[in-house]
């Protein structure tokens, strides 16, 4: 985030100038710390301890001593790590090309199912054998996301025909029967519908559309933004329910929750949609921000996990990824000119929360993924999947 110092300072004097200068310094210091942590500690650590050079596979998670845990490897995590090292390489922050190339080969060797270049497994076991053949929509979103970012870095090593086949598979096999949105998986394992896969398909297809110029990918983006305005977001509640029934109505309204982190993620995505397509979404980012900012941030400046839509009751636990999404939303607001001063203050606050709560341990380059209100860890491992959130936010 680049602050327009000249504009702010030209309109300020005395105490106002002092506050603006302090804000700029706080934000720059926090952002410098975060980038130094990512480039100097996290990326080198996960390239070593979090990557198996003999197989080309990334670790699913580590224990608090930094050792790999023997758990199934999800395609989603492999794809997120491919994205991380591709983006870092493109920024010149880390020489990630070899990790992307080897990770792509391992992805195709271990997760691609025979007979159809669009079929990928959900997970493999520690021996590299397929453990779960489910076609998971959330995982497919990150498959497309990784392939788009890898294409930017390694070019023809990513086959556009395979990408087109995956997009076609989504449209023909994973579309909801109504034609609105996507089911969670094939075979379908639950009657409810989640907003989360829709959100990440929008994120992925924005990149696929830009990199591969696929009309089908752009169509998914347009359809998803329209679905968000008509069904996913409840304007009456100023809330984005996590679960819907099979008719895209709020599931179990009395117990329904929204996740403030997802409100923030959609703010960033709607701004990204406008930047890529030139189209303004029917739902204003301010509608998403209103309740997330009011109900979703705790006394430490961290984003809490869930808020019950009906009565506003809140959890006290918080996840690292959600504060990352708060940071992305603040950056989107700043870039769009929506009260830049307030957006900069929020960005500094989210960066501070990341530094003090989540990135303080358990080892250099690692994180505490989930804590209670007193900063006590609620998990005893470090999930690799969080590096995607941190990298993109920073």
- Fraction in beta strands: 5-15%
The helical percent reads 40-55%
Q: How many β-strand stretches?
A: 15
The SS-based structural class is mainly alpha
- Series of secondary-structure elements, N-terminal to C-terminal: HHEEEEHHEEEHHEEHHEEHHEEHHEEH
Instruction: Report the radius of gyration as a whole number of Å.
Output: 21 Å
Q: Mean pLDDT score, rounded? A: 94
Q: Which quaternary structure do these chains form?
A: single chain
Q: Distance between the terminal alpha carbons, to the nearest Å?
A: 9 Å
- Which strand order do you get reading across the main beta sheet? 4-5-6
User: What are the segments in which pLDDT stays under 50 over at least 5 consecutive residues?
Assistant: 1-12
Number of helices: 13
Major sheet characteristics: 3 strands, antiparallel
Query: Which word captures the global form?
Result: globular
Walkthrough of the structure:
The protein is mainly α and 394 residues long. It is 54% helix and 8% strand. It has helices spanning 5-10, 14-48, 75-91, 97-110, 137-154, 160-173, 195-212, 215-232, 260-277, 285-295, 320-336, 340-358, 386-393; strands at 51-52, 57-58, 61-63, 73-74, 123-124, 130-132, 135-136, 185-186, 193-194, 243-244, 257-258, 307-308, 318-319, 370-371, 381-383. The strands form 7 sheets. It has a 3-stranded antiparallel β-sheet. Strand 5 (123-124) and strand 6 (130-132) form a beta hairpin. The chain starts with a helix and ends with a helix. The model is unreliable at 1-12 (pLDDT under 50).
């Amino acid at each position: 985030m680049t602050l327009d110092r000249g504009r702010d300072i030209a309109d300020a004097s005395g105490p106002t100038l002092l506050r603006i200068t302090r804000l700029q310094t706080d934000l720059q210091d926090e952002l410098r710390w975060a980038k130094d942590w990512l480039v100097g500690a996290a990326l080198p650590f996960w390239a070593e301890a979090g990557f198996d050079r003999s197989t080309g596979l990334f670790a699913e998670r580590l224990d608090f001593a930094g050792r790999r845990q023997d758990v199934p490897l999800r395609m989603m995590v492999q794809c997120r790590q491919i994205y991380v090292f591709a983006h870092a390489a493109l920024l010149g922050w880390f020489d990630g090309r070899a990790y992307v190339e080897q990770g792509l080969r391992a992805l195709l060797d271990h997760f691609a199912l025979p007979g159809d270049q669009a079929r990928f497994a959900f997970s493999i076991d520690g021996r590299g054998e397929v453990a779960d053949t489910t076609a998971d929509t959330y995982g497919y979103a990150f498959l497309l996301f990784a392939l788009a970012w890898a294409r930017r870095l390694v070019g023809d090593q990513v086959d556009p025909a395979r990408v087109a086949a995956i997009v076609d598979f989504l449209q023909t096999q994973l579309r909801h029967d109504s034609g609105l949105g996507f089911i969670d998986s094939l075979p379908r394992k639950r009657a409810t519908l989640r907003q989360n896969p829709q959100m990440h398909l929008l994120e992925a297809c924005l990149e696929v559309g830009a990199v591969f110029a696929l009309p089908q990918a752009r169509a998914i983006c347009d359809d998803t933004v329209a679905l968000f305005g008509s069904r996913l977001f409840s304007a009456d509640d100023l809330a984005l329910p996590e679960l819907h029934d099979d008719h895209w109505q709020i599931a179990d309204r009395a117990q329904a929750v929204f996740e403030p982190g997802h409100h923030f993620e959609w703010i960033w995505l709607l701004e990204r949609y406008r930047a890529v397509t030139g189209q303004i979404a029917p739902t204003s980012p301010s509608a998403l921000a209103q309740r997330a900012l009011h109900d979703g941030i705790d006394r430490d400046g961290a984003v809490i996990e869930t808020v019950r839509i009906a009565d506003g009751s809140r959890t006290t636990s918080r996840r690292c990824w959600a504060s990352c999404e708060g940071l992305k939303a603040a950056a989107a607001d700043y870039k769009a000119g929506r009260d830049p001063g307030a957006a900069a203050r929020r960005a500094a606050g989210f960066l501070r929360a990341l530094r003090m709560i989540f990135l303080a341990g358990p080892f250099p380059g690692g994180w505490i993924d989930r804590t209670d209100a007193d900063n006590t860890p609620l998990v005893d491992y470090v999930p690799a999947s969080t590096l995607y959130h941190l990298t993109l936010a920073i």
